Amino acid sequence: MATERQILANRENAKKSTGPSNISITKFNAMRHGMTSKQPVMLPHENREEFDALFQSIRSKFHPHHEFDDEFALQISLVLWRLIRGWLAEQILINEFTDLEGIRWDDLLQSGYLLRIQKYELRLTNQLYRLLKNFKRLSATAPMLAE
After folding, report:
1. Which of 62, 68, 119, 135 has the greatest number of beta carbons closer than 10 A?
2. Domain range summary for the chain, segments of one domain joined by +
3. What are the boundaries of the region Disordered (predicted)?
4. Computed from CA positions of residues 25, 30, 33, 37, in that sequence, does the dihedral angle turn out positive or negative?
């Protein structure tokens, strides 16, 4: 049981604790790879200009005529960006489990990390195919909508 003096001290100490002063530094603390994030995420080591170049490249291939086309180009760019992120995570993971004798496959597979990354990659690949299929279907109906 806490004494009255301890309770007062705890209250005074609680007033001093305000949390992190700079959220931009701490907001990525729990993030490992960003492959499953709901919002577009640029990790601290990633280059925004590279993503913008990827988006512009995809956008130019779609010849956008509507806002929907731009949205599809953005969604496809985000999925591809996350897939690239996954491939890099795989490389880093394999390097971690590599020693002078080669890759320690047993340790790597037992860790479960590789299978988890591959599961995310499969999910993203399926999402990419769905986006492309939907874009193709909407593009086919776009001339009818314009009439």
Report:
1. 135
2. 76-139
3. 1-21
4. negative
